[in-house]
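Re: that chain you flagged

S.,

Sorry for the slow reply, it's been a week of failed gels. I finally had a moment to sit down with the sequence you sent. For the record, here it is as I used it:
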Amino acid sequence: MRASSLAALTRTRQLIFRALLAFLAREGRYPTGVELAEALGRAPNATRALLRTLAREGLVERREGRYALTQAGLELAAALVATVWRGDEEIETALRLLGVGHAAEDRR
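Prediction finished late last night. Pasting the structure tokens below so you have them in one place:
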């Protein structure tokens, strides 16, 4: 993970990033921009703009109309669940779905 990725993750970007993972935990798949906007109660255009910003940071990418984490995004999510999001079961569930095994072990 690039150190700049964590530093560039403003509170709003972190909200979008977390919501993407929460959607994955609940639905078992990545969201579209519209689905993520609805989950957040935000305008679709504003949500897509924030997703594009995360894409420029190399944290998400659009795959088949859905927004998915890149390898750098997975690394950042693992770092966040070990610190800021420690104990967040929804995010830990999402990381387990993605095969990031650190989520459960970090709590022991």
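What I noticed first: Confidence is low (pLDDT under 50) at residues 103-108.

Talk soon,
D.
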